[in-house]
Design goal:
The chain has about 375 residues and is of the alpha/beta class. Helix content is about 60%, strand content about 5%. It folds into 2 domains: about 140 residues, Rossmann fold; about 200 residues, Hypothetical protein af1432, CATH 1.10.3210. Helix 4 links the parallel strand 4 and strand 5.
């Protein structure tokens, strides 16, 4: 508790006079030299409410005491009232520059000393209490923020787990979907990060990129409702079969709508957009809604291109895999439908990364097959 007054003066009479003025209101500590004052402050800094300091003292004078207090940052919590007979020009200004709270010249009026000490002690006491309160509140806020971050991470993990579980359901229905889902997720991230860097108008952040990449796993969730004779047909689909296959976009959205409320809205929204619109084309010739240009959510545009690339470079029951160069030129030339010119530019810049990721993923897939055989 800060309630003590430290009186620093080499003259015993001066200390006695000041003590007699203040002793009814405060416990008094006395120091007959600057050196002793520094020692007392160092040991009792949490108990001293104010220092009454004389400037003219042998060896270690009042200015030396102030210098130490300033260097040790004691002046931030312990106010100093200078009471001195020093009359040289500029002394008062120098004291205030060094951080003293008030300045009284000798001889002094006892009432003035008493009132100024009270005002200074009350002011610093209030300020110190406020700072301690702010410090405690700041510490509490830090703990709460840390807890929120942990909760956000758990929620993110939960959202990702839900998506992975649903993606696994698709994998069980479509013999090709397991690795396809993984590759589309990686290709989507590569493309999205390039768009984030080159086209800030889309408002992509790393957090949004993470959400879109995770949600891309659900782009074909609707295929779990497509009959095997269509989904796994080893030949080209008839017109009617193709129309039925196209319904996986809207059927997937119906599935997602039925599980609303169990995952984060951000993930839910991105998953819905991707599921419904990943077959839309920039010129309006896609499905199911025939959206044109920027009517197509950026999340769906990203997954659409990533999905097309993987479909080309992967072997399917109805076709052989195209080379990476062939797939690249088919996409940029428009053979796979019209894509956003900005995304195509990012695709060009990311060509090498797409190819490296494709080879790495296929190598891992091959190793997994060999180890399981």
């Amino acid at each position: 508790m800060r309630n003590k007054v430290l009186i620093v003066d080499d003259m015993e009479l001066n200390r006695e006079i000041l003590a007699s003025i203040l002793e009814k209101d405060y416990p008094i500590i006395e120091a007959d030299s600057g050196k002793k004052a520094i020692s007392i402050i160092q040991k009792q800094q949490d108990e001293i409410a104010i220092v009454l300091l004389d400037l003219i003292m042998p060896e270690v004078d009042g200015f030396a005491v102030l210098e130490v207090m300033r260097n040790q940052a004691w002046l931030k919590s312990i106010p100093v009232l200078v009471i001195t007979a020093e009359s040289k020009a500029g002394v008062e200004s120098r004291c205030f520059e060094m951080g003293v709270s008030d300045f009284i010249k000798k001889p002094f009026d006892s009432a003035i000393v008493r009132n100024r000490v009270k005002n200074i002690v009350d002011l610093f006491g209030y300020r110190n209490h406020l700072e301690e309160k702010v410090e405690k509140q700041t510490e509490t806020l830090k703990k709460q923020y840390k807890l929120l971050v942990m909760q956000a991470e758990k929620l993110k993990e939960s959202n990702t787990n839900i998506i992975d579980i649903l993606g696994t359901v698709v994998e069980g229905r479509n013999l090709e979907s397991g690795e396809h889902i993984k590759r589309v997720k990686y290709f989507t991230r590569i493309l999205a990060e390039q768009v984030m860097r080159d086209y800030p108008e889309y408002g992509l952040t790393q957090e949004k990129v993470d959400v879109i990449a995770a949600a891309s796993a659900l782009h074909d969730i609707g295929k779990i409702s497509i009959p095997d004779n269509i989904l796994l047909k080893p030949a080209r689909l008839t017109k009617d079969e193709y129309e039925y296959m196209k319904s996986h976009t809207t059927r997937g959205c119906e599935i997602l709508n039925n599980i609303q409320g169990v995952w984060d809205e951000t993930y839910s929204k991105a998953s819905y957009e991707i599921c419904r619109h990943h077959h839309e084309k920039y010129d309006g010739n896609g499905y199911p809604d025939g959206l044109v240009g920027e009517q197509i959510p950026i999340s769906a545009q990203l997954v659409s291109l990533a999905d097309a690339y993987d479909a080309l470079v992967s072997e399917r029951v109805y076709k052989s895999a195209y080379s990476e160069d062939e797939a690249f030129h088919m996409i940029v030339s428009g053979e796979c439908g019209v894509f956003n010119p900005k995304l195509l530019e990012c695709f060009r810049k990311s060509k090498k990364k797409f190819e490296e990721e494709n080879r790495l993923l296929k190598k891992k897939q091959q190793q997994g097959q060999e180890s399981g055989s």
